[in-house]
From TrEMBL:
Alphabetized UniProt keyword annotations: Cytoplasm
Descriptive protein name: Carboxymethylenebutenolidase homolog
Coiled coil: none
Organism: Strix occidentalis caurina (northern spotted owl)
GO molecular function: hydrolase activity
Length: 245
């Protein structure tokens, strides 16, 4: 997830200065941001943040977008109170910081959020999306909990040794062509493994000319050349959820 020249793939990008449409709630031992659609629904999506944490406006904007498309959206603090990474932090300490925040060790938080959605929000049809660190978490959850009927992993880092073909339900993988931290050969290897071993529907899509974080860290107005791909990525994400939830 790191290299010597730039220890982390995530820069903050275009920070969104939007007021969230939802509210913060307590979900057992963690906090979460929840946004609900105007009409009642039993469809819900968990939004998993990147290294910058659950309070990043960009990620909450994605939750608001899901609510506008008819889903109960919840963005929990999967760091469980531990501090999110800040761009001003010492990057040489990033690897040590990450060791205490394993994206594959979130079962306690996932179970608490699933319970909250079912008992307090009336959710019966569930999906999950995640960005970068959260994209890795999506891999784990889609191989662990059959309750998630659809998953979307956006630029979740992968290793050559990873095998995430034991997916329980349909999963969509979004990657950027010019992602400095996810080489295309790794994406191709992932696709080969899925084609050989995966028993459920999946799609792997690479967006031309885009860089890491483009779907949730780029503003269309500031980046006009990227606008079609930003909008396409967001539309594709919603379409996948609509198809399988």
């Amino acid at each position: 997830m790191a290299n010597e020249s730039r220890p982390c793939p995530c820069d903050i990008g275009d920070r969104f200065d939007c007021e969230g449409c939802g509210q913060e709630v307590e979900v057992e031992h963690i906090k979460a941001y929840v946004c609900k659609p105007a009409a009642s629904t039993d469809k819900a999506v968990i939004v998993i943040h990147d290294i910058f944490g659950w309070q990043l406006p960009n990620t909450r904007y994605m939750a608001d977008m899901l609510a506008a498309n008819g889903y109960i959206a919840i963005c929990p603090d999967f760091f469980a109170g531990r501090e999110a990474w800040k761009p001003s932090n010492d990057w040489s300490k990033f690897d040590d910081w990450l060791k205490t925040r394993d994206a594959r060790k979130i079962n306690k938080e996932a179970v608490a959020v699933l319970k909250y959605l079912k008992e307090w929000c009336g959710a019966k049809k569930l999906g999950v999306i995640g960005f970068c660190w959260g994209g890795i978490a999506v891999y784990h959850l889609m191989m662990t909990y059959a309750e998630f009927k659809a998953g979307v992993s956006l630029y979740g880092l992968i290793k050559d040794s990873d095998d995430i073909s034991n997916l329980l339900n349909p999963t969509f993988f979004i990657f950027a062509e010019k992602d400095d931290f996810i080489p295309l050969h790794q994406v191709n290897l992932l696709e080969q493994k899925l084609k050989k071993n995966c028993k459920v529907n999946y799609e792997v899509k690479i967006y031309p000319g885009q860089t890491h974080g483009f779907v949730h860290r780029r503003r269309e107005g500031i980046n006009p050349q990227d606008k079609p791909y930003i909008e396409e990525g967001r539309k594709d994400m919603i379409s996948w959820l609509n198809e399988y939830i």
